[in-house]
């Protein structure tokens, strides 16, 4: 199948077709998303939580994000792959933002980058990255990298002032040249207003149904974790579309039991007859 490009997304948006985005941090999940035909794969800094077990997204480094990006790109041949600029890699100056975005493109081999925030300084950074020839996805509303000032993972845009701030930030990011904007954890009417005001697609995550597309975190979507205390993300708005954690748990319990019973490996899984052909295959 042909690769998803910005032109593909623009076409979908023009025809009113919703855009699907899911996060991935490694090769296997990227292969799953590619096979499912998901439009956009986001190598999100939520990797800090779901892949590394941190309580928030702040600790992950650009170097670690680059490793995740390279692994995802190997598995996601068709989707557009977007790499998240992690906390600390773009706030100091537009020059720092461009430098980090260039590394995500050159070393992470992604198709585009995403950055959080819609304050004037962030809009300036977005513009500088676009000027450098790199496609930028914006991200407003709940921006997890700034929980220090937001006071935690809290919905945004719940007051008239807050709602205006969300819509104005999205508009400013569009003016800066962003090709899409993530709206995270804002009331559905605020997301609807932003979507109506913008010419570029909005991607909602906890922002109701009236966005141009939707995004979810892979582990939450597939039900990777069986216990809520293990999942570092799983917000209320997440719908669990699968129960993969239960299937994994069952497979591991069976494996452990069969090892303890000496039932595994059985004859079928013991290479006691190594032919010359088999040897060739392993050397
Ligand atoms: O890092 C992430 O998973 C994200 C999505 C929630 C949009 O930024
Ligand atoms: Na993110």
UniProtKB/TrEMBL annotation:
Give an example GO biological process.
photosynthesis
Q: Which UniProt keywords apply?
A: Pantothenate biosynthesis, Photosynthesis, Transferase
The record's EC number reads 2.1.2.11
| Pathway the protein contributes to | Cofactor biosynthesis; (R)-pantothenate biosynthesis; (R)-pantoate from 3-methyl-2-oxobutanoate: step 1/2
Q: Which GO terms describe its molecular function?
A: 3-methyl-2-oxobutanoate hydroxymethyltransferase activity; magnesium ion binding
The protein's superkingdom reads: Eukaryota
Q: What class of enzyme is it?
A: transferase
The UniProt catalytic activity note for this protein reads: (6R)-5,10-methylene-5,6,7,8-tetrahydrofolate + 3-methyl-2-oxobutanoate + H2O = 2-dehydropantoate + (6S)-5,6,7,8-tetrahydrofolate
Q: List cellular component terms (GO).
A: mitochondrion
Can you tell me which family this protein belongs to?
Answer: Belongs to the PanB family.
The record describes the protein's role as:
Catalyzes the reversible reaction in which hydroxymethyl group from 5,10-methylenetetrahydrofolate is transferred onto alpha-ketoisovalerate to form ketopantoate.
What is this protein called in UniProt?
Answer: 3-methyl-2-oxobutanoate hydroxymethyltransferase
């Amino acid at each position: 199948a042909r690769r998803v490009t910005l032109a593909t997304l623009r076409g979908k948006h023009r025809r009113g077709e919703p855009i699907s985005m899911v996060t991935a941090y490694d090769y296997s999940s990227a292969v799953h998303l590619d096979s499912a035909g998901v439009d956009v794969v986001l190598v999100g800094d939520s990797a800090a939580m779901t892949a590394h077990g941190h309580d928030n997204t702040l600790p992950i480094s650009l170097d670690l994000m680059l490793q995740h990006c390279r692994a995802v790109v190997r598995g996601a041949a068709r989707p557009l792959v977007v790499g998240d600029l992690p906390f600390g890699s773009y706030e100091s100056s537009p020059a720092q933002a461009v430098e980090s975005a260039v590394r995500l493109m050159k070393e992470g081999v992604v198709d585009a980058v995403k950055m959080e925030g819609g304050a004037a300084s962030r809009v300036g950074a977005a513009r500088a990255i676009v000027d450098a020839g790199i496609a930028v996805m914006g991200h407003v509303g709940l921006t997890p990298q700034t929980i220090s000032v937001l006071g935690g993972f809290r919905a945004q845009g719940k007051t008239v002032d807050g709602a205006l701030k969300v819509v104005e930030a999205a508009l400013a990011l569009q003016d800066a040249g962003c090709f899409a904007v993530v709206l995270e954890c804002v009331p559905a009417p605020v997301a609807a207003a932003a979507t109506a005001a913008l010419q570029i697609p909005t991607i909602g995550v906890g922002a109701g149904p009236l966005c141009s597309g939707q995004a979810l975190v892979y582990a939450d979507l597939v039900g990777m974790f069986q216990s809520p205390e293990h999942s570092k993300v799983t917000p209320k708005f997440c719908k669990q579309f699968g129960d993969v954690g239960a299937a994994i748990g069952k497979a591991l319990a069976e494996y452990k039991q069969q090892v303890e019973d000496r039932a595994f490996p059985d004859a079928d899984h013991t290479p006691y007859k190594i032919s010359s052909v088999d040897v060739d295959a392993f050397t």
